[in-house]
Design brief:
It catalyses: 2 reduced [2Fe-2S]-[ferredoxin] + NADP(+) + H(+) = 2 oxidized [2Fe-2S]-[ferredoxin] + NADPH. There is one protein chain. The chain has helices at 16-27, 43-47, 65-76, 164-173, 193-204, 295-313, 328-334; strands at residues 4-12, 32-35, 53-54, 63-64, 82-84, 89-94, 100-104, 109-117, 123-126, 142-144, 156-160, 179-184, 209-212, 214-218, 222-226, 232-236, 239-242, 246-249, 265-266, 279-281, 286-287. It is α/β, with parallel strands linked by helices. It folds into 2 domains: 4-125 and 247-334, FAD/NAD(P)-binding domain (3-Layer(bba) Sandwich); 128-244, FAD/NAD(P)-binding domain (3-Layer(bba) Sandwich). A hairpin with a 4-residue loop joins strand 7 and strand 8 (109-117). Helix 4 (164-173) packs parallel to helix 5 (193-204). The longest helix is centred in the C-terminal third of the chain and has 19 residues, at 295-313. Bound molecules: flavin-adenine dinucleotide.
């Protein structure tokens, strides 16, 4: 079946640990695909502290969340892992031949000899609006935290939310869209002071309209809003953009029969394997006695999990330990020397 992607290894999660997993697999000549629910690599490092300094990465006295992820992407580039962004791995099932079949939210199917769950605290997904029947407009009239705003040029849009992302989106669209309204439940914002000041200025100048209230209905062309003084008003729109925050959801991983302990996947500390053979769990998602949720610990876990995977991918072969400093074989793989 051409629609099925066959691979030695599938990594679920492109956070720091998932990325380093690809490096360790690459050194052992195990090819991989990496899936993330987000549109980019980096996990918590990029989503939660991209610009903040980090001081406890071995050999790197100081970098940032974003800087670390860029270094990891550069480090794994020689192994050419295939990235699949904006896709959440939804299902995992054992096949009769022992391989693992996984399906994503976008309908991609993977058939892998080994799986590395590097899902951290879960898939970062936008919080959805709770208005009844609204899900059917997703992608056509309703957009959550859209990356590309050009599609809204010349349109009448309502941006729903009151945080940095909502205000930034409204400001970015002012002048580009035909009309921009920011809809928020109250006239106060949970955002950076300078950003709020810029936003207020744009409202005073008439570049952005401000509507206060709760959305109670959406039919694809009108947003129904309940105002604080108990009125109902309709806002006409071409598109509704919701920026209600992005929060991690462990989601489907809880349904894969891995006997979670407090939302974490138990593993052994020799192979970092779950109760399912060939299914490993590394980084923040796993648990074992003494577990610490630190990047350096995840890197060690990924290293031993990759070695453990050789027993599944290359059964019966004994793989010698080689140093990247001296092994010509590894130099060839890394494309150096
Ligand atoms: P994550 O970074 O959480 O990445 C997991 C990825 O998996 C996410 O991108 C998610 O979208 C994706 N995913 C999950 N489920 C699915 C699915 N079903 N399908 C597709 N994709 C999925 N650690 C340190 O060592 N030093 C520090 O100084 C430090 N500072 C921190 C500061 C803050 C504010 C925070 C919040 C954390 C900090 N940490 C620090 C912890 C560190 O960020 C985590 O240990 C690390 O990010 C874990 O990496 P990970 O790859 O396991 O998971």
């Amino acid at each position: 079946d051409p629609a099925v992607v066959e691979t030695d290894a599938l990594i679920i999660g492109a956070g720091p640990v998932g990325l380093f997993q690809a490096f360790q697999l690459g050194l052992l000549e195990i090819s991989c695909h990496i899936v993330d629910a987000l549109p980019r690599a980096g996990g918590q490092c990029v989503e939660l502290y991209g610009d903040k300094p980090i001081y406890d990465i071995p050999g790197t006295p100081r970098t940032t969340g974003q800087g670390l992820v860029e270094s990891l992407l550069e480090q794994i580039a020689p192994f050419k892992p295939t990235f699949h962004y904006d896709e959440q791995v939804a299902t995992l099932a054992r096949q009769p031949d022992g391989r693992l079949l996984m399906g994503t939210s976008r309908g991609t199917t993977f058939l892998a000899k080994t799986v590395f769950i590097a899902a951290g605290v879960g898939a970062f997904v936008p919080r959805r609006m709770t208005v009844e029947g609204i899900a059917r407009f997703e992608g056509s009239k309703l957009f959550y935290h859209p990356e590309a705003l050009e599609q809204f040029a010349g349109r009448t849009v309502v941006v729903h939310g009151g945080d940095d992302a909502a205000l930034e989106t409204a400001l970015a669209l002012a002048g580009q869209a035909k009309q921009v309204t920011l809809l928020h439940r109250r006239d106060a914002f949970n955002a950076d002071d300078a950003l709020v000041a810029r936003f207020r200025k744009a409202v005073s100048a008439g570049d952005i309209r401000l509507a206060i209230g709760q959305p109670t209905g959406f039919d694809g062309t009108r947003v129904q809003v309940a105002t604080p003084d108990a009125q109902t008003v309709d806002l006409s729109v071409d598109a509704l953009i919701a920026c209600l925050g992005i929060s991690p959801r462990l989601g489907p991983i809880a349904d894969w029969g891995l006997e979670l302990e407090r939302k974490q996947v138990p593993v052994d500390t020799e192979r970092f394997e779950t109760r399912e053979r060939g299914v490993f769990a590394v980084g923040d998602v796993n648990t074992y006695p003494g577990k610490k949720k630190l990047i350096v610990c995840g890197f060690h876990e990924a290293t031993l999990a990759a070695w453990a995977a050789t027993t599944v991918v290359f059964p019966g072969q004994s793989i010698p330990l080689q140093y990247t400093t001296t092994s010509t074989r590894l130099h060839t793989l890394l494309g150096v020397g």
